[in-house]
Structures are given as C-alpha cells and as structure tokens.
Amino acid sequence: MKAVYYLDRQLMYCPVKKYFEQYAIKERDTLKLKNKKLSLLNIIDRKIKYVIDNNGKPTPPISFPLDKMYDFFEIKHRKDQNIVIRIFYFRYDDKIILLNALEKPDDYDTEKEKRKISKQLEATKEFQNKFINNPQSYEEYN
Amino acid sequence: MKSIIKKNIDAMAEAKKYKKFQELSEDVDSRLRLAVEIYKERERMCLSQQDLAKKINSTQKVISRVENGDVNVGLDLVNRISSALSFTVNNWSRIYNFSIPEVKIILGIVAKNSGSEPPAERKEIKEVNTSNSYSFNK
C-alpha cells in the first residue's frame, strides 16, 4: 500500500501538496523556523506512514472516520494551541488517496467557521468522486 | 506536448532531504506508538480522557495532546499515565519496538530407572509458550 496525492485536473494542482507548500523550507528561513517546519512535516509524514502500515484503516488516535455523510477518513494533527490540521484521505485499491487538507481553528463553533469547514468537506467529497471517475489522477507521495 | 498541470513545490519531498528530518522520525514514531498504547488502554478500561486526567491530576487537554502524538511527553507524565493505565511489559514492547523473548518451559517427568535397564520414555511433556504473557503455567 502506498500514499498518493489526488490531482485535480480542473484546478490543475494537488490540494494536499498545495497545502504543504506553506511549510516549504526557504533559504531565508531562520534556523528556528526551519526546525519548526521540519517537525511539523515530519509528524504529518509519520502519521501518513502509520496509516499506510495499517492498510489505510481509520486507527484512532491517529486517523478517524468522519460522520456518516462522508465516506473518507481524516488524519489530525494539532499545529499549535488553537489550530488543528485535518488531512482527508480514502482508500482506493492499494492506495491511500490524500484528497484535501485544511486547518480547523478551535473556535469552530462560530457560524462563519462552520460554513467554511462544511464547504471544504463538500469540496473533498467532490475530489473523491472525481478520483473514482478517473483513478489516474494522482501524483506520487514521496 | 507541454503539460498544463501547475507543478506544486513538493514541500514534503524537499523536507525529507534534510538530515534533521530523518533524525526526527525515530522520536516521532515512538511518540505515536505511545499515543496509540495510551488510547487503546484507556478505551479498554472504559475511561474518558477526562477520567484519566483526573486520575493523574492533569487536564483533558493534556491527555488529548499526548494521544494525538502532538507533544513530547516528559518522563514524569509518562510514569503517571502508565501506572494509571497499568501498563505491562507488552505495552512497552510495542512502544519501544522490542520483542519479548519467547520462553519455553518443558515439564517432563522422567521415570526413574535403576540397574541396567535403558531409560524409560518420558511419561509427560508439556510445552508451554509463555511469550507475551510472562505467566508460568504449571
């Protein structure tokens, strides 16, 4: 089993890969910032590896199923005190398809945030359907 | 034909080229294994995060962060959590990735022989595999 990034051919990018871009190490980054970015990417990578080792099954506390409306799973990571990173994926054949990623603030209860999250979940569902219709739409997760 | 797909920067692949990334992996893996063990034991004991926090004089938020593998856990906290959840050697073996040696005990009753008679067949042999249990059944 391996993980791959879902590639959206209309948007012309991989949503999860694009999400990770903000943590790309830049030359001008201070050592502290570089280490912070590396730690964050590392723990996300290890959580993805953990999911691969468990054949993509949702295995709390690393990955969880969502409510009944969505048949994909999520990997959670607390980025800092108030923000949780959520990476959505599903299993397809022998692959784990990384569909989408978002940051959920702890003040999720506000109407504005609720709308934003449910919009993202709907977009993820659409990505999932698009992938099922065209299972070649992916890039390798290295 | 030129591809119209925008090439994203592969931040993850780039990060993996750093030595620091490799060094972090081992620590993070054992942190995740600890998180999984704590979660499983807590669930097995039907405790909520709040219940466990109460048992160890901590807060639910701390337990949540430990179970998500988000933080480096201090030895003192590990000790308090592991004793509250009655961790056994099996839990530690899964966390630190070591195998418990397989212990085989052969209980044999060999007939006592005297004189020039050849030794009698063993009357009873029990093979007890105590791996992962450390309990010695007789």
Structure write-up:
The complex is a heterodimer of chains A (142) and B (138). Chain A has three helices and six strands; from the N terminus they run E-H-H-E-E-E-E-H-E. With 142 residues, chain A is an alpha+beta fold. Chain A has one domain (2-128). In chain A, strands 2-3-4-5-1-6 form a six-stranded mixed sheet, sandwiched between helices. In chain A, a hairpin with a 2-residue loop joins strand 3 (73-80) and strand 4. The longest helix of chain A has 23 residues, at 31-53. Chain A is globular and about 45 Å long. With 138 residues, chain B is mostly helical. Chain B is flat, with a radius of gyration of 26 Å. Chain B folds into two domains: 12-95, Orthogonal Bundle (434 Repressor (Amino-terminal Domain)), CATH 1.10.260.40; 100-138, no CATH class. Chain B has helices at 11-15, 19-44, 49-55, 60-67, 75-84, 89-95, and strands at residues 104-110, 122-129. The A-B interface holds A 7, 9, 12-14, 17-18, 20-25, 35, 37-39, 41-47, 50, 59-62, 76-78, 141-142 and B 4-6, 8-16, 18, 20-21, 24-25, 28-29, 32, 35-36, 39, 65, 67-70.
Helix content of chain B: 40-55%
| Unreliably modeled segments of chain B | 125-138
CATH H level, superfamily name of the largest domain in chain B: lambda repressor-like DNA-binding domains
Total domain count of chain B: 2
Number of strands of chain B: 2
- CATH domain class of the largest domain in chain B: Mainly Alpha
Number of H/I helices of chain A? 3
User: What is the topology, as strand order, of the major beta sheet of chain B?
Assistant: 1-2
